[in-house]
């Protein structure tokens, strides 16, 4: 051992090109807590404080980003989702990493090895795989590397999981009862409640909903009653957000009689026409939005995924295994109609809009300005780069659109949208990217070379805006300035 190890890639100033960027990150962003208001982490594993036997279990299981890269690199499916051993799967990933140069996975991989494992003195490749495996596994065997220990090491204050209205939320209630200092809150994700295009699956879900709500769902009225009861149950369990995964936005005209007829048709096992389906989905989005507003929730809309494109592998493996891509639906007009209908009656909740197609950056950056009403700073948010866009370039283009067409200073920042407990470094990646962008412009004279002025905005975006935006009862941190002298305006 003897020698002090050195960072070979993820250095202290990774991504930070200028002295201004470095000061912004280290003095104003780095130590801010994390409010991870949207992810897909399993609450049962948090409740049980799951321990992982090895690095594959915590890092590769469920990670469709890595699986897509491995398949592209010629790795057989058994090393991704199949029956290969954990050690074999890790070796296959280690062999893929050097082929990921310029893919964000190369950055993420080494960020996640550095935090929380402290492995930064080597790059992951087939030759270093054994030592990385052994060092990470040794840490996973210690008391600080269960699920809760990892979350605490990453300075997380709040994390919001993604939950179906039929979920019991038993695990959330157990976490709350345990008195753990990190808030783990459910998020209402009712996508299956408008999926009428597949009557068999929809009716099976309705039966589960009826049992959970103790309602005999016979018609559309009793369906809404069941949803309201579950919405109230989620609120009592600490839920303060909803989330909707949409291929496009639905805002077609309809009458209550038409929607009731569509529900009856589907409940009888018949598939609706496209027009009927669009009417039903439009009605449900509106009803859920009213429920959210009444409870003071924040509603999120993730728009634009084209899902389950590979029918052969979808049939074999199911959803969320890496066979989704960017869609190209035109949804600006229906989104405007949807938001306007809610705003007309002053029932538009705080809203976050995310796009998956980068061509829609300016659409959403301008759309939010239509419905800001002065009641809340940043009431409507253009959400951070999502899924295929949560990499450096995607973040930068989102930040540019938001800056040019709204107020970057009011952004509520980053989230992980991940199923992995190691993905909290996405917040670090975002903060470094943000500080680098601002630091470059300070050096170029496009922004004032005033560290405290720009730094306070960085702290706001990293933590304080989210702490104020959501009803989580979070206190603002102390002023971020550590006393470092302001940078000279002239070198």
Rough outline: globular
Radius of gyration: 23 Å
Question: What is the CA–CA distance across the termini?
Answer: 41 Å
| Uncertain regions spanning at least 5 consecutive residues | 481-491
Number of helices: 19
Indicate the proportion of strand residues: 5-15%
The helix fraction, in percent, is: 40-55%
* Strand arrangement across the biggest beta sheet: 4-5-8-9
- Major sheet summary line: 4 strands, parallel
**Average predicted confidence as pLDDT:** 95
- How many strands in all? 9
H/E element string? HEHHHHHHHEHEHHEHHEEHEHEHEHHH
Please, what is the oligomeric state?
Answer: single chain
Helix/strand structural class: alpha/beta
Would you give an account of this structure?
- There is one protein chain.
- The protein is an alpha/beta fold.
- The protein is built from 19 helices and 9 strands.
- A 4-stranded parallel beta sheet has the order 4-5-8-9, covered by helices on one side. A 3-stranded parallel beta sheet has the order 1-2-3. The protein has a two-stranded antiparallel ribbon with strand order 6-7.
- It starts with 18 loop residues before the first helix and ends in a 22-residue tail after the last helix.
- 45% of the residues are buried.
- Residues 481-491 have low confidence and may be disordered.
